[in-house]
Amino acid sequence: MKLKHNKKRNTAFVYEVLIKEATSALLKNNAETRNKIVKIIKQHFNPASTLYKDLGCYRSLYENQNLERSVCEKIIKEAKIAQRLIDPQGLFREQSALIADINKEVSSGVFANFVPNYKTLASIAQLFSHKLNPKDTIILENHIIDDMMAISAQADKVETIDEIVVRKFIQKFNDKYDDELLMEQKELLSYYITSFTDNGLELKMFLNEEIARLKKELATAKEREEFQADSVMSEKADHIIEKLNSFNAAEISEDVLNTIIKTQQLVKEIYTDADSN
Q1: Measured between alpha carbons, how far is 166 from 158 in angstroms, rounded to an integer?
Q2: How far apart are CA 202 and CA 187, in angstroms?
Q3: Is the pTM of this model over 0.70?
């Protein structure tokens, strides 16, 4: 039995197309559209919303991969229970408000964005509809389990963004700085691109560790003989460390990103020059 699928009422699909649209706006330097989409995501998918709970049920099924069958079966069982506990009328109202905001603030064309795992999202929506007979339910569950048991085609952390999008964004920065980016710079940009998916949680975690590393490297560099003999170099290092400290309370912006990228390059050059000498 195949039920009619309304993709605008598929919470995960709408979330994914918003991420696509935000990434596209970022690549085109369209800050206005990007900010509107981020605002919509933060407003409608806040942790207290029904949409957020519904999205969590979807994500538990389509983001888990390379798992054992027994684990997949348990996850599906718990996801179905959690989804049943969601107020359907409340969910419908929040979906309607989300659709209205997308149409008004961005464009109805957002819903035409291509999502690679669309079929999986549609299957999960059918499973959550509770309108399937037992036979069709088991068949559908087995299809979803097969997907969950499969090894992800992408080994990196950027699971919801096409690799070509990441490459284009990195190329944008390569063109800006006229050099190939360092591995740590590419990692930073990848987290930045995907920060829309989790309100920047993983990006913030990465930045906490990376900023701490950069400050430690600069502090160590200050102890070197060439820094001790050059007060200007030492003062500049102090200024950079002070600026990095200020990022703890700052909104993550492209300016912050640029400063960290430049600092990563500076640290690399300091130690490369030292090693060559």
Answers
A1: 8
A2: 11
A3: no
